[in-house]
Design brief:
It holds the Pfam family DctQ. The protein is mainly α. The chain is about 70% helix and about 0% strand. It has helices spanning about 20-30, 35-50, 60-80, 90, 95-130, 150-185.
Length: about 180
């Protein structure tokens, strides 16, 4: 006996839709182990600070950088796994054909938005990596550690947004092909 939940009509949509989505999910699953590393180094910091009275200079910034990086990657993971936010009250109450049109609109608007964000992230990343006269000098945190984490995060935001643009293009092509198949039948 099969379970007929309200989400069953688009259950297959929860699978990766293309090679890029599959790669993102595989890479993200590996990267998710860094959450455990973050917990471990944070535990180390607490131990060093409160038990041995020898706080570290690197744990807080490193844990923040790793966590921030993983949350940035989490956006493309959610899109690849079709776990992104949608208004299910509307989406689940319409027919499959209307859902296809809603998906088409979503992908067009999402592509435009991701493209504009990628453009802005490019400017932000360039500013954090290069001086106004063009010399490579990554922005640093300004702390005792003075790691280039701000520049690395801004570069990662740009790269992830570029990947998101490609995801939207691939998904949009699939949506258009899906509409064509329905029209040809």
């Amino acid at each position: 006996m099969t379970d007929k939940t309200p989400h069953a009509p688009h259950e297959q949509e929860e699978q990766p839709r293309n090679f890029l989505d599959k790669a993102i999910i595989k890479i993200s699953n590996v990267l998710s182990w860094f959450f455990i590393f973050t917990v471990l180094i944070s535990f180390y910091e607490v131990l060093m600070r409160y038990v041995f009275d020898a706080p570290t200079t690197w744990v807080h910034e490193t844990a923040s950088f790793i966590g921030g990086s993983l949350f940035i990657v989490g956006g493309i993971y959610a899109f690849a796994a079709n776990k992104h936010v949608r208004v299910v009250l509307i989406y689940d109450s319409v027919s499959d054909q209307v859902r296809k049109y809603l998906n088409l609109v979503h992908h067009i608007v999402g592509l435009a938005f991701a493209g504009m964000l990628a453009y802005a992230a490019y400017a932000m990343a360039m500013e954090s990596w290069f001086t106004p006269w063009g010399e490579l000098r990554p922005e640093t945190s300004g702390s005792v550690l003075n790691a280039p984490y701000p520049a690395l995060l801004k570069g990662l935001i740009f790269v992830v947004l570029c990947i998101l643009v490609v995801q939207y293009v691939l998904h949009l092509i699939q949506e258009i092909m899906g509409l064509r198949k329905k029209d040809d039948v």
